[in-house]
Design a protein that fits this description.
The complex is a heterodimer. Chain A is an alpha+beta fold. Chain A is built from nine helices and 71 strands. The relative contact order of chain A is 0.05. Chain B starts with a strand and ends with a helix. Chain B is 55% helix and 15% strand. Classes of the chains: A alpha+beta, B alpha/beta. At the A-B interface, helix 5, helix 6 and helix 7 of A face helix 1 and helix 6 of B.
């Protein structure tokens, strides 16, 4: 882990480069300290000690109350005079968790125990009196607490709450109090006496040892290798060797700065945090002077964290209490100004603000290069503030190349003015360092700085450059591609867009031995080094802004795939197949600006966008997102530098920067375990042990069927990114992804058995399929039991069936009656009538014409014929077979056509056949047919028409029958409305239809009948 | 021309007997109330045209036509029915009837129909034409393994009839002579007489009638 320290020191140094202008040095570690205060919900900012319970919750005692923390929300406990089972006091002194996951708390006048399953605090008493025990430790072997005062030490049984005491053999006399009670791995108890010495008590043999020196012990800690470390007030930091009979103290020297000030030598807590700093570093808190790192191997303090407001996510205070490393390796610091978290998983990005180099200028770290000759010299390109020569060893700025500073030989002309715009730096094979700048290049050769203009072009602005093959530099600029020979300093220019066109290039990279790739405002090109020709990479991705996708700002190449940052998003372009696809659609990457694309050694493409930093794994196509929550700054800036130096990636913002190691930005693979924290029944919290419902269901009566569940996951790695899924078995078919929400509510649950399950997904999207569950049984009211449903269902079915049967029977009867009527008419009356007709005809012909008998016979003949005709109609109406438009139209034709033909009237029937399926009942049929007959008869009799048009069509919910003739028509005002028309209207009305008649003299007549569809 | 009458209504039998016998060139050779003895009846009077009522007790007209058509294929059977009953008319045609007439027809029309049938004419009304089209649409008929279908022209004829056109109008519309129209309709009749068609249609109609 020393490597880690070195790396951060390196990082620290680099971040400090610009700060050295102010000629001051203060070592800063690149740890991100996350501070929680009352603003985040903590019960009080003066935190004293914290500990993790068996479910993973962090419990924090403060000067005013108790907090339970899950990473997102604090559940707070404060003393209340009303609640006898609440927290007995606010100013808490010590805390421990026992095997039953109960929380033990001490306060000035007593000791209490909080039972999480019942939600109640119980006060422990010594006989009838309260039992004041300032500090204690939990002995998991004996399931008891050990505590002490200056006469006795005590054992408190956690099961029976009984207290037993043992007196010291040699009482030390009065002391102000006890600082700490500690049990080591050799089953010894260490009792640290305030402003005195300490006792060491063997719990197995009852042996007592008193260290009789007033070293004012503060804290004792046993490290991973079973070494004991002790912090004191003004007596230094010590290591204790104890062989059973003799104790030997090794005193370690202090940091010089601390030594000079005696009061600052109050060391307080001691902790190891192996995940953060490895095995050799102890984290030592001090009361007023910040946080120290002690290297056990070197036997000295190696680092001090001080409060510095310019450091993003730096330590928030120098006033500390105890530290605590939780089971996941997260280091917690209890301070006077809140609770501080240092989580290895959240240390990937180190960010800090930069001081102004020149108050009025834009100031952005653009590039870093080591001097090839002098290992102590670092060249720093700061866009807006020129080039800086920096002494790494002495942390000093040696010179600054800027138009108002810089070399005495520099002429302050307009070109030199523009020196401050450094975009990128590059080291060639001849040990020159090159910086691109407005107007040309800056060459740093053997420590001397010279500007080289790209001749022939006035305002060229080079952006990026490379060398290939050896001795040839290629420079991408907004005026095209330049080559520069290191041998003869010859400059050539190549234009991808042709003369006079857009040749604005942003980036150049190498493709293979013969080709370069360029990205520019007019597209991406493959450049052939030998021929000097450009080949455009053609693509057109659908649904993407057609102009934006051709504006290229950045390009990288991985395994023959070019990744091109464009104004419309990130595009991957296969150089072999020439197929382009869009990358990062789901992440919303819709614009990749200049310099915002980098490739790391593991073939990840890093993309800076206005809404986050993305890491695209080109091997498996996964994308990871980092935002301000991970420690980078808001990227919503016009221009951001993105460069690498010594394997680290740097993001240069205006006035700030972020450093990270692209290969160690790792995923959180620790799965997170959810916990169900609350059940509300009809909006009232259930005060029962929720854990017990995992096995035995919670029984609820049918009216308690509005249930909500509260759940969380005690996980302190990017906790606000933890998501959940829940499912109520017996109700939900599938898991419900609820995002970061931590409640689920079900209303009006039916009676039955249910199981509520929750699972959680950590900040890196790794699901823990091990769900936590509670079982619930909701009662069923008697009217919802199965047999009631069956009975009701049967009843309804029966009623419906009977009604149906009745209706069918009536219909059948009706049909039968109609059928028999038509049969009777047909067989008997019809046949006889027809014979009367024939008889009368035969008889008529036997008489001479014009005799009286002949005339009478003719009358009989005609009358019987009329009756037969009418009866024919009646039989047709009555016959149920004819209940459709289909049949009626056939009959209408049969009736009309011979009549019209006899009068030489051309019939034109246009029937919409799709209407034929509609039904007409007997009555309607009769009316429609009658009206039709009447209309045809009128035409034949009066209209003198040559053409009749009959149409049948559907209009909204009506069937429309229109009979139009081209006859002479009549004046609707003057012509008397005859019986016929009145009759027609009545018939139409009786079937809820509508009859309309239009006519004008000479314009023919239109009869229109609307029949509602039934 | 010898005409036999089958009708269950005694007045109808008598009146037809009178009408036919009073017409020159026609002779009513026998009247019978039903078809229970149709074979011997026909043998006895050997008519050229039979006027057959459809609904009769015991053995009805459709059965009667079938028997006559099978045993005396040269006798023309003219169905008569009081009112239009397309299903039964179609069934009769399929059973072998050569034409049909409504009882409401005037005596002149009745006599004309007898003449027409005898001279090979054939009439069809719109509603019956529609039934014929449906019968061919809904069933596939074969005779000696050959599919019997209506020709395009025949379908055109039927379509005209369904639309209410007279033979004359159909002839004008299709630009053919009335005689040709008649021939087509006669052919349709003959196609319906083919045994498989007749059986199938009669069966189908019977099922629907029951």
């Amino acid at each position: 882990m020393i490597v880690g320290i070195n790396r951060f020191i390196l990082g620290v140094m680099l971040t400090l480069v610009p700060m050295l202008l102010q000629a001051q040095f203060s070592p800063e570690a690149n740890f991100k300290f996350k501070t929680y205060t009352s603003k985040e919900g903590l019960v009080h900012n003066y935190t004293k000690k914290c500990v993790t319970d068996r479910k993973g919750f962090l419990w924090i005692i403060t000067q005013h109350g108790l907090s339970r923390f899950d990473g997102v929300t604090f559940k707070n406990f404060e003393h209340s005079n009303i609640d006898s089972t609440g927290l007995p006091a606010n100013d808490l002194y010590d805390i421990a968790v026992d095997k039953q996951n109960r929380i033990w708390l001490s306060y000035k006048t007593g000791l209490c125990c909080y039972d999480q399953s019942s939600g109640k605090f119980s006060i422990i008493r010594n006989g009838a009196k309260p039992f004041p025990c300032i500090v204690f430790t939990y002995d998991s072997l004996r399931n008891c607490l050990w505590t002490a005062d200056y006469e006795n030490y005590y054992r408190v049984d956690c099961g029976s709450f009984s207290i037993s005491q043992t007196a010291y053999q040699k009482p030390p006399g009065t002391t102000l109090g006890i600082e700490q009670v500690f049990q080591d791995s050799k089953d010894r108890l260490w009792i640290l006496l305030d402003r005195r010495g300490y006792f060491t008590i063997g719990l197995k043999d009852g042996s007592q040892f008193y260290f009789d020196q007033d070293i004012w012990p503060m804290h004792i800690y046993e490290d991973d290798e079973h070494s004991l470390w002790m912090s004191t007030w003004a007596s230094g930091f010590r290591k204790i060797n104890f062989d059973g009979t003799k104790q030997e103290h090794i005193l370690y020297s202090d940091l010089n700065s601390l030594k000079s000030e005696p009061f600052s030598q109050i060391y307080y807590g001691i902790e190891e945090a192996p995940l953060l700093t490895g095995k050799n570093i102890l984290w030592v808190t001090t009361s007023t002077q910040g946080l120290l790192l002690f290297d056990k191997k070197e036997g000295k303090f190696v680092h001090l964290f001080h409060y510095d407001p310019s450091i993003k996510n730096g330590i928030a205070t120098d006033f500390n209490n105890l530290g605590y490393t939780d089971p996941h390796g997260v280091l917690w610091l209890c301070t006077w100004h809140g609770l501080i978290k240092i989580n290895k998983q959240e240390q990937q990005f180190t960010s800090r603000e930069l001081p102004f180099l020149q108050s009025s200028y834009y100031n952005r770290l653009a590039a870093l290069e080591d001097d090839p000759k002098d290992k102590n010299i670092l060249w720093v390109g700061v866009e807006g503030s020129g080039i800086i020569r920096y002494d790494k060893k002495n942390h000093k700025i040696l010179s600054r190349y800027f138009y108002t500073f810089g070399d005495p030989g520099l002429i302050l002309d307009s070109l030199n003015y523009n020196w401050r715009w450094t975009e990128s730096m590059f080291k060639d094979s001849k040990e020159n360092i090159w910086a691109t700048t407005y107007g040309g290049l800056i060459r740093i050769k053997n420590g001397t700085v010279k500007k080289i203009l790209l001749a022939g072009v006035d305002t060229v602005y080079p952006r990026t450059m490379l060398e290939y093959p050896q001795n040839t530099l290629w420079i991408a600029s907004e005026k095209g591609l330049f080559s520069y020979s290191l041998l003869d300093e010859k400059i050539s220019r190549f234009l991808p867009g042709g003369k006079g066109n857009n040749n604005y290039l942003q980036q150049i990279i190498r493709e293979d031995t013969a080709h370069l790739l360029t990205a520019g405002r007019s597209g991406a090109f493959e450049f052939n080094i030998t021929s000097g020709n450009f080949r455009r990479l053609h693509w057109n991705i659908k649904d993407l802004d057609s102009i934006g996708q051709q504006q290229c700002y950045a390009i990288q190449l991985v395994n023959n795939i070019a990744y091109i940052g464009t104004g419309a998003g990130l595009i991957s372009y296969n150089m072999k197949t020439n197929i382009a696809t869009r990358v990062g659609v789901a992440e919303g990457i819709d614009n990749v600006q200049e310099q915002r694309l980098k490739k790391d050694a593991a073939d990840n493409i890093w993309i800076l966008t206005s809404h986050g930093l993305f890491q695209y794994d080109t091997h498996n196509g996964t994308m990871r997102t980092y935002t301000t929550a991970d420690g980078i700054y808001d990227l919503n800036e016009d221009k951001i530098g993105f460069f690498d130096y010594n394997g680290l990636f740097y993001i240069g913002y205006r006035m700030a920067m972020t450093v990270f190691d692209p290969l160690s930005v790792n995923v959180n693979r620790v799965k997170t375990q959810p916990v169900i924290t609350q059940i509300n029944i009809n909006n009232l919290p259930l005060n029962e042990n929720i854990d017990s419902f995992t096995l035995h269901p919670l029984s609820l009566s049918y009216h308690n069927n509005n249930i909500s569940f509260g759940f969380t996951a005690p996980d302190f790695t990017n906790s606000d990114k933890i998501t959940f899924a829940y499912r109520l078995e017996g109700y939900d078919k599938d898991w419900i992804l609820c995002g970061t929400a931590r409640t689920a509510t079900y209303t009006n649950l039916k009676g039955g058995n249910y199981t509520f399950l929750v699972k959680a997904c950590n900040s890196s999207g790794v699901w823990n399929n091990n769900a936590v569950s509670v079982r619930i049984k909701v009662g069923t009211p008697f009217w919802q039991t199965a047999w009631i449903y069956i009975l009701g269902g049967l009843l309804i079915f029966l009623i419906v069936y009977l009604l149906y049967r009745r209706r069918i029977r009536r219909l059948v009867e009706l049909y039968k009656i109609r059928d028999s009527i038509s049969k009777n008419l047909h067989d008997e009356i019809g046949a006889t009538l027809s014979s009367i007709n024939i008889y009368s005809d035969v008889a008529r012909k036997k008489e001479a014409p014009d005799t009286e008998i002949n005339l009478l016979m003719e009358r009989i003949y005609k009358a019987s014929g009329r009756v037969m005709e009418s009866m024919n109609d009646i039989v047709w109406y009555v016959n149920p077979k004819n209940d459709s438009w289909d049949n009626i139209t056939v009959r209408m034709r049969e009736y009309a056509i011979p009549l019209l033909e006899a009068k030489n009237i051309r019939p034109d029937f246009r029937m919409n056949e799709t209407l034929f399926r509609y039904k007409l009942d007997m009555q309607q049929r009769q009316h429609v047919y009658f009206i039709f007959k009447e209309a045809i008869n009128n035409i034949v009799k009066y209209a003198a028409a040559t053409e009749v048009k009959v149409t049948l069509e559907k209009k909204e919910k009506n069937i429309l029958l229109v009979i139009t003739d081209n006859g002479k028509g009549f004046d609707m005002q003057t012509v008397r409305r005859g019986n016929g028309l009145h009759n027609m209207e009545q018939r139409a009305a009786s079937m809820k239809g509508k009859l309309q008649l239009f006519s004008e003299p000479g314009e023919g007549t239109v009869v229109s009948l609307q029949v509602p569809i039934t | 021309m010898r005409v036999a009458v089958f009708d269950d209504n005694i007045y109808r039998r008598e009146s037809l007997d009178m009408l036919i016998n009073n017409t020159t060139g026609m002779e009513c050779c026998g009247t019978y109330p039903d078809c229970s003895d149709v074979l011997s009846n026909i043998s006895a009077c050997s008519p050229e045209v039979v006027l057959m009522d459809i609904d009769m007790p015991h053995v009805n007209g459709i059965e009667g036509v079938k028997i006559i058509h099978r045993n005396f294929p040269n006798i023309y059977v003219l169905m008569q029915t009081v009112f239009e009953d397309e299903d039964k008319i179609l069934a009769s045609i399929c059973a072998g009837a050569s034409g049909y007439i409504l009882k409401k027809s005037t005596p002149v029309q009745i006599l004309q129909a007898i003449e027409d049938v005898y001279s090979g004419g054939a009439a069809m009304t719109a509603s019956v034409a529609k039934q014929v089209i449906n019968a061919f649409k809904q069933n596939t008929f074969t005779e000696n393994n050959e599919k019997i279908e209506l020709s395009l022209r025949e379908k055109e004829m039927l379509g005209g009839l369904v639309n209410g056109l007279s033979h004359k109008m159909i002839a004008a519309k299709c630009n053919i002579s009335i005689h040709t129209v008649n021939t087509h309709i006669k052919n349709i009749y003959e196609k319906l007489h083919v045994n498989s068609v007749a059986e199938a249609v009669v069966k189908a109609i019977k099922e629907r009638l029951v």
